[in-house]
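Re: [help] complex structure
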Amino acid sequence: MCIIKRIKMKVTKQPFFIEVIRPQLKEVEKKLLADLGTYNKVLTEAATYLFKAGGKHLRPVLTLLIARMCGNQITSDHITLAISIELLHTATLIHDDIIDMSPMRRGLPSVNFKWNDKISVIAGDFLLARSSYYISKIGNTRLNKLFAKAVMDMCDGEILQLLQRYEIETAFEDYLKKTERKTALLMAVGALASSIISRSPYEKAAYDIGLNIGIAFQVIDDILDFSSDNKKLGKPVGNDLLQGNLTAPVLYALDSADGKRLKELIETKFSDKESIGEALEIINKPQNMDKAKNLAQHYANLAYGTLNSIPVTETHAALDDLFKFILVRSY
Amino acid sequence: MCIIKRIKMKVTKQPFFIEVIRPQLKEVEKKLLADLGTYNKVLTEAATYLFKAGGKHLRPVLTLLIARMCGNQITSDHITLAISIELLHTATLIHDDIIDMSPMRRGLPSVNFKWNDKISVIAGDFLLARSSYYISKIGNTRLNKLFAKAVMDMCDGEILQLLQRYEIETAFEDYLKKTERKTALLMAVGALASSIISRSPYEKAAYDIGLNIGIAFQVIDDILDFSSDNKKLGKPVGNDLLQGNLTAPVLYALDSADGKRLKELIETKFSDKESIGEALEIINKPQNMDKAKNLAQHYANLAYGTLNSIPVTETHAALDDLFKFILVRSY
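Output below.
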């Protein structure tokens, strides 16, 4: 299901931020599934499975809106960039699901559960390479370097997350570092690359907008892991916690009056059902969720601040709309 | 242990093909371990572990020799290319060892056994990105495209191998296709990229030399999986067969008088020790091994033929020496 249809189902009115880039986004969605005829069917099925399952396509959306912000022109290179980013993002999802042993993604069995870890390793590698192929088409090795460096940093973020599982002494600083590297960096680099293609003087602003809205997006994702339901989320609620990933709501709860009990529960690594249930109840308390929402709002405010610092274009309203969507989304 | 030391131990005299590129190869080896200070220690340890364990570095060697063949000049871009290829090759080894559940590599526990599959996925991705970063440094997106396309094709080869496990009806054509995609292509692309950097008119010759010597190399590798010993090989003998990968010696044995019995044994998927022992005995018969050696020689001859079709440089003797090494190697 494509983003356009999906968002139609979720909100009564077509979001403005989609409306202004609708034809270009359609082109991105179409090309994600194109030119795969020469490869083995199992490989292409596994590699394109998550595209067909839908997804918010927020990274291409942001990239295309930044192109507009930087010059109002979306060129074929911007579209190639948007494709490359979604390919790269999907590759990381497939490999992350191996690492997190996630059974679901986008409401369907994850690639590792539908096929297996071996196919997932190969399908992820294939998409990483395809992403690199697309970015090369633009013909500017500065972009290739940016993306390669971003992937290295994302790997660093993944390792940090892996090593800090169940680590109740995780500092907020480490959480933010992981969040930046794992999620926000790709949005930042996508926005920066878009501004480079536009030959815009606002490269730093584009990067900062991507980075800050990326952190806000991930904090909301971490909240939804607790407050959403399986169906909306398309993956099991509480999976982050079960994997020992201690995100913003958990860190706030650890710092609350229930912190001592939560620590004990986390230390069991949730070997029984009761302990995860009790932990979820503690974390879900409004004061923890509100603090996490405020954190997301803080990063969104930084993005708004940067956006408002540059000359207003007609795309500002669409970016504003996108930031709001990121903050209020429920999936 | 570096290639120079390792080859010294194996043969009494320093091979000529190493001698002519010794300073450049040293530089490659040094840079493989450089500039990693900002990344997490576990990540860099897992990612550089196989470099420290040694390896033949045949891909950088071939790349550097082709540079010589194309103009006698090894530039800093050729060295960057050689680093990129070894990074990419090592990434594929780390991910392959997850797929094949290999316990050993280069005489040490494989990354997935020393750490685990999760760390292996991330370390492989990190090296893929680092390879892409290095190739971008050269500043020619044609090279980026070539490498990205090669990785996609290598993934296709991996999937083919995975899907054809224990498939006793595997045709020789399929075996050669897998061999080309899995192994030879990277050597071909490395040689081609080297000739592109040299602005040589012999791009096609460089590619063909890499491709054919790459197939010869892999056929010998497949022979060594049966005829070598664990210590020399640095990994368990017979592992390909145990994983159901039916390589040239197996295909020849299936086509021999013992073929019927071997089929029965393969169909058991080696659920007991006796069946793998009996299968190894059948495959190891001289007539099967000789046929496989002839196949490797055939592809080496094609490489020799191409080499002899282009104007002789002083590097021809070194390439000739490398081809011989590939054919007679025992590890």
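Residues 171 and 190 of chain A are 28 Å apart (CA to CA).
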